[in-house]
Amino acid sequence: MSVKCSEVALWISVKKHLVMDKFKAETVKVPFGTKHLDAALCFPSSVTDVHTAVILTHGAGGDMNFKHLVSLAHALASDSFLCLRFTCKGLNMGYRVKAYRAVLDYLKSQQKFAIKHIFVGGRSMGCRAAAALARQLSDESEDAVQGVICLSFPLHPPGQKHVHQQRSEDLRGLPEHMSVLCVSGTEDNMCDRVLFEGMVKEMKAQVEVFWLKGGSHGLTVKGRPEESVLEEVNLHVISWMNKQAA
């Protein structure tokens, strides 16, 4: 039986509306010194059910509207999690960590949500900043954040594997009670698999690693539709999040 293009388009449109009915989204401005950071909140339509939040940010390029982050934010919010993603264009790691902390403080100040558990994460440079913040916070309070989500952790620049120890210092410094999820592509030219798995063995935190077969640093897979890859990554993140909440 043949299916007309118009019927396929209608099915996709209906599916999107069904997903959107599960969550709400709003843009916000996060105070950061004398400036503001652009951010976006996605949360379940039933606000009273929100107890766990995830903060996400982008890599060295782009912004919070990077398709993978938006897709994951929507998936999380559709599954009873709050997701706050933000834009920080600075390439200095110290600056990024300070911005991340401002976003965390902003989330904690929101009276609208009864957040009990917070996870920090991002993609590439964004997850490096998240790991650095989580390490700083763990020195101050054991329950400041519950875990870190690393999408395409940049263990080293392309062809410069010698810096992997410096790049992974914050991950290796996370305490035993911290939970960490790493999602990386097997073809990521910024994350040698042998070096990464060796680093994981040195970590004290509770780590789970998901290798996306054929995945690049941008978590794209040659020959696979982007939506299919996004769905696979999102399902794995949500599955891991649900295990943390159990």
Automatic annotation (TrEMBL):
Residues 52-229 form the KANL3/Tex30 alpha/beta hydrolase-like domain. It holds the Pfam family Abhydrolase_11. InterPro entries: AB_hydrolase_fold (IPR029058), KANL3/Tex30_Abhydrolase (IPR046879), NSL3/Tex30 (IPR026555). This is KANL3/Tex30 alpha/beta hydrolase-like domain-containing protein.
